[in-house]
Specification:
The complex is a heterodimer.
Chain A (H helix, E strand, L loop, with lengths): L3 E10 L2 E11 L4 E5 L6 H9 L6 E6 L2 E2 L5 H4 L1 E4 L11 H11 L4 H14 L15 H13 L5 E5 L7 H18 L2 E6 L2 H7 L2 E6 L2 E6 L1 H6 L4 H6 L6 E9 L5 E5 L3 E5 L11 E6 L4 E5 L6 E8 L3 E7 L5 E7 L9 E6 L5 E3 L9 H12 L1
Parallel strand pairs in A: 3-8, 3-9, 6-7, 7-8
Antiparallel strand pairs in A: 1-2, 1-4, 4-5, 9-10, 11-12, 11-14, 12-13, 14-20, 15-19, 16-17, 16-19, 17-18
Chain B lengths: L1 H36 L19 H7 L2 H34 L5 H11 L4 H14 L6 H26 L2 H9 L4 H12 L1 H17 L2 H6 L8 H6 L11 H32 L5
The chains are: A alpha+beta, B mainly alpha.
The complex binds adenosine-5'-triphosphate and magnesium ion.
């Protein structure tokens, strides 16, 4: 049980900057997921927290105490590795007991802890087996057991599910969620799979190229992405992006011209000097409503993806981009037909040319008034 | 059909013929030594390839010589010490060279390999001076020192290659579990390196067991000799007699431990020699 604070953490390998100015507060018992594309530095950040890499700049605090120079066991962390990294020549029992024995626990305590851990993870019957005689899911559980056994304050997971098949992944995901609820310990989990991040996290940290793009609950990230990067990363299928021109429209927000859809007023406030600036409109597939079009209006359907509970329409725009929109299943639309699209303006997002999201109009309005008075 | 079967049969016969030639080539000298050692000296110069009657008098003669028994003891001490030291130093060096990143690592590896290219004769006189200075002349210590110099390069090289193949995450898991480098090496890596250690250990043992030049140069008295030298110095009743029977008996006696060792470690050696070649 512990809180964790990262203060302007930097990591360089030689001249390459891998982690830049990452600051983060993780509360006691929180389940935090680091997510981001491959190579963005998720594993490196996790290994910095674990103590497997040295921090170039910045402070890492556990329970208010600076731990930069402590070894992993001194920090009180346990870690589950992507390849499990079980000791191949040791039985399940010895794998789980290894850390406890090194910590010079008494024999009886070791035995008690190993058996309790095994029970929680349903490994009771497998204690005498070698790792090679276990299935992927069982190995995964042993790896978690080994990390848990010393009752670390913080549990770290580096893409623990990536070696499992789809069905087992969902099952193990649920088991990990259940485990978190049961142990109540602080957990940090690395994945590049946004579904895993959304389903497990209390809070998601989206990393991009060594920076923190945004931190927030799954819902915050989904509903109020701070940047185009986050908007595109969270949600499946991806958010649609369209280039639009915009004009300020007073308190109401701004008026945009969407090719193929028409004019809309969005409750988003333009920065003062960015009148007529090229912006990007972002709308999620589930927020686009298709209607059968008359004649040559709207968009042509190039593909219909049927998923049982819903269907996705792939639409061709005039400049041959693809838009995705959701429809009920079975879909009333067929390939080759044309549809027009509509969306609720408050559900749409606007991003400036740096990819930053424009803030909601009413909030801005208040702050504008504040500066005037 | 018949042509194809004929071809298959011929190929098979040819294959086994080749195997037979190879076997005879490799084993015949040793076989002849065994046969000779089992003949009484009166029959020694009758050429025969079969043992008609087993006569152990040569063995009795050899084993009743106190110097030969002492030589066996010396050889065992020297060879086992060399193996132990070479494995210990080799493992720790392999840890550093295989798992720790530091400047000049490749240079060190090349130097290690380079050292093993010097012929024994080239370093003989220099080594002699070293041994005299360290006061190890005419003692097992001198031989242990000089053999270790020659076995360490390949021990380090082979063990480093194997050490590099062990996954990084395994070491990191041990670190997270609170293991010191020494514990990681002995409790996690060593059990996984057994095949490599058996292979290198055996090669070091054979090298130390069979070495002749240093053993002859660095020892003086009969009580300090090792087996190869002792065999060479077995003399007959007179200047004109070479005691082939006892020499062969002695050779067989000192070869047997090697054969036994190889048989014991055979499976490990095979997996050790191939484990590096194929992934997985
Ligand atoms: N030891 C190292 N030396 C130099 N560069 C490194 C080292 N380790 C990682 N990097 C670089 O740091 C960047 C981030 O690596 P990291 O492993 O943290 O990515 P990741 O987000 O975990 O990606 P993935 O999803 O593929 O695992 C990469 O560009 C990588 O090349
Ligand atoms: Mg990674």
């Amino acid at each position: 049980m512990a809180s964790l604070t990262l203060e302007k953490i930097n990591k360089r390998f030689g001249a390459t900057r891998v982690i830049e100015e990452v600051s983060l507060d993780i509360k006691d018992g929180e389940f935090v997921v680091f997510v981001g594309p491959s190579g963005c530095g998720k594993s490196t950040l996790l290994r910095l927290i674990a103590g497997l890499e040295s921090i170039t700049h910045g402070d890492l605090m556990i329970d208010g105490q600076r731990v930069n120079d402590l070894t992993p066991p001194e920090r009180g962390i346990g870690m589950v590795f992507q390849s499990y990294a079980l000791y191949p020549h040791m039985s399940v029992y010895d794998n789980i007991a290894f850390g406890l024995k090194l910590a010079k626990s008494e024999k009886q305590t070791v035995d008690e802890r190993v058996r309790r851990t095994a029970k929680i993870l349903q490994l009771d019957g497998l204690l005498d087996r070698l790792p090679k005689a276990l299935s992927g899911g069982q190995r995964q559980r042993v790896a978690i057991g080994r990390a848990m056994a010393r009752e670390p304050k913080i549990l770290l997971f580096d893409e623990p599910l990536s070696n499992l098949d789809a069905a087992l992944r969902v099952q193990t995901r649920n088991e990990i969620a259940h485990l978190h609820e049961r142990l109540g310990s602080t957990m940090i989990y690395v994945t590049h799979d946004q579904v895993e991040a959304m389903t497990l996290a209390d809070r998601i940290v989206v990393l991009n190229d060594g920076y923190v793009e945004q931190t927030g609950s799954p819902r915050e990230l989904y509903e109020q992405p701070a940047s185009r990067f986050v908007a595109g990363f969270i949600g499946s299928p991806k958010m649609n992006f369209l280039d639009v021109d915009a004009r300020a429209e007073g308190d109401a927000g701004c008026r945009i011209q969407v090719p193929g859809i028409g004019e809309r007023v969005l409750p988003r406030r333009l920065a003062g000097d960015s009148d007529d600036a090229p912006l990007t409109l972002g709308v999620r597939p589930e927020h686009l409503t298709p209607t059968t079009a008359a004649g040559e209006a709207g968009f042509r359907i190039v593909n219909v993806e049927y998923l049982g509970s819903e269907a996705y329409l792939y639409l061709e725009t005039s400049n041959s981009d693809t838009l995705v929109c959701r429809s009920e299943a079975p879909s009333p639309f067929a390939r080759g037909e044309r549809v027009t699209l509509d969306f609720a303006p408050q559900r749409a997002h606007l991003f400036d040319h740096d990819g930053r999201a424009l803030p909601p109009a009413d909030v801005e309005q208040m702050s504008t008034q504040a500066t005037i008075s | 059909m018949s042509l194809r079967t004929l071809k298959a049969v011929l190929l098979k016969i040819g294959f086994w013929l080749l195997v037979a030639v190879l076997m005879v080539y490799a084993i015949f000298p040793f076989y002849y030594a065994v046969v000779t050692s089992l003949k009484p000296s009166s029959e020694l110069f009758e050429v025969s390839y079969w043992v008609d009657s087993v006569d152990l008098s040569n063995y009795a003669a050899v084993l009743s010589q106190p110097t030969f028994v002492a030589a066996i003891r010396n050889s065992v001490i020297v060879a086992l010490s060399v193996v132990a030291i070479a494995l210990l130093l080799g493992l720790t060096a392999a840890w550093a060279l295989g798992r720790v990143r530091f400047r000049g690592r490749t240079t060190v590896m090349m130097l290690v390999l380079g050292v093993s290219m010097f012929p024994q004769v080239a370093v003989l006189s220099g080594l002699f001076e070293v041994i005299r200075t360290l006061d190890l002349y005419n003692s097992p210590g001198g031989l242990i020192l000089s053999y270790t110099i020659f076995t360490l390069p390949f021990t380090v090289w082979i063990l480093t290659t194997f050490m590099r193949q062990l996954p990084d995450e395994l070491e990191e898991a041990a670190i997270v579990d609170g293991a010191s480098p020494w514990v990681t090496l002995t409790k996690v890596f060593m059990p996984l390196l057994w095949p490599a250690m058996a292979t290198t250990g055996l090669l070091a043992f054979i090298a130390a067991w069979n070495e002749f030049l240093f053993a002859l140069t660095f020892t003086l008295t009969d009580s300090q000799r090792t087996v190869p030298v002792a065999i060479a110095l077995i003399s007959g009743g007179s200047q004109y007699e070479l005691p082939w029977g006892p020499i062969m008996a002695a050779s067989v006696i000192v070869t047997v431990p090697l054969v036994v060792l190889v048989v014991i470690f055979q499976r490990r050696i095979v997996s050790g020699l191939t484990a590096g070649a194929v992934k997985g």
